[in-house]
Fold:
Amino acid sequence: MSRFDSWMEASSRAVARRTSRRGLLGSLGALLVGVGMLPLLPVARGTEKPAKAGKTEAGHQDATQDPASCNYWRHCAIDGFLCSCCGGSAAACPPGTVQSPVTWVGTCHNPEDGLDYVISYNDCCGKSSCGRCLCNRNERDMPLYVPFRSNDYDWCTGSSVANVPYHCSTARVLARAT
Amino acid sequence: MARTVRFAALAVALTLACPGLAAAATLTPDAAGVVTALPAAASPHWVWVNDVVFSHMSDGQARLVDGDSGRFLGMLSTGFAFEHVLLARDGRMIFSPETYFSRGTRGTRTDVVTLYDPVHLAPRGEIRIPPKRAVTMPMMADAELTDDGAFLLIYNYTPAQSVTVVDTRSRRFAGEIETPGCALVYPTGPRSFFSICADGALLDVHLDDAGHVSGRLHTRDIFDVSADPATEKGVRLGSRWLFVSYGGTVYSVDITSRGLEAGPRWSLLSDAERRQNWRPGGLQQLAVHAGPDRLYAIMHQGGPETHKDPGKEVWVYDLDQHRRVQRIALRSPTGSIQVTRDDRPLLFAAFIGSTTLEVYDADSGRYLRSVEDVGTTPTLLVTP
Structure:
């Protein structure tokens, strides 16, 4: 694979990969999603498979509504492997893993209903990396010195069972952002 | 015995049929058990390519490459969620903060600083530390040595924030310093460092000779966190730490006799370049070189959320004049750079999404060579 291809495939990986999630966001991030910036995001460039006949691999017409897509609306600030591709879902961990008790939160805009939601990016822990659907989007991501707004931490921490080994990331809706 | 006879007959038959084999038999037999070693002194043009191995994080690696020849010299196996090695000032030891589990990916967690012999690249000892080392996207400020190398400082996140202090002379855990609200370690002298706090202020910490806190204070806010945050990917040149914001503003933190002070702010970008969406990006996006003092920054064009994207250019700045003196075009997208410390410096370029290391002349920007398969997901580059 050429280095360029490798970059296209891994651009999100670039920063990505596992460590963690975060969010915060606000109107700006929501606005960006809303005005068609998504195709430019590293994730979109890096991990999205070409859709056939306008549909995603899972048959969705719109990638922003496909939980297995990096462009899924909840993934606006995610960094890691999508649990929807790893035997779990956008809100649930895959079998045999443990959901981290601590996490970081973001706010993402759902283009389907036009509302903003607070998203909790809980990591699923206790096994080796899932390795599927790597996704890194950095809307309003902050440096490590603002921990709960930084997607560069491994959030498999805070308990003896969710301690370092990172498997994948969920994107749970907590509430409508007000 | 019958089998031996058959083999001997076969060997004779092969020798008669293939005269070349007889000639090959004149080679001197190789000795068994030979293991290579490295020179006692590292070349300034060597580079450690640190690799977290994202897809198999229990298998962290640090891989050593000679930038002059492109030769791969050897590697270290460095455990789970590896970040980077630290090289002793005298070149006689390699320190590596590492994490292990008793059952591979589960079981009892053990954190250690492993001591490696830089000639044989073999472990020579370890220092047990509290099992709370921060696991993050690898950053240089996750662990640093004080200026005299006497103490190794390691950032912890559980999510409580603290710093582990290891005495490298006695090879013992010296203690733990709580740093609530503040992250990472940036050495400022033989017995001092700062951490960056979430409000943009710095926590200025001083140590005694036992590695215990002798003084600490918060500075006023240095960084503008809300409008345009500076990344945590700072680089140090002498008595100055340099940080760059998402939007390309350079922040200086000066180490003075009066304490830490904010130095001049300036921009990597002209107004025209800013309108064209140029900005710094990458994982290890800055490097410095002393002499004529130079700052190297990976640059790309993209929106505010692309602050971690790789770039295909390195812009070089005169740190006295705060002006750009060169644009280096890179062959491949690059997220990590490092410049060697000598007076004929090399520029190394790597990317977490590629397995190739590129080498450039850091003065002229001329491409020199590529080294393939330097790792799986190369992160941070460390030079002697």
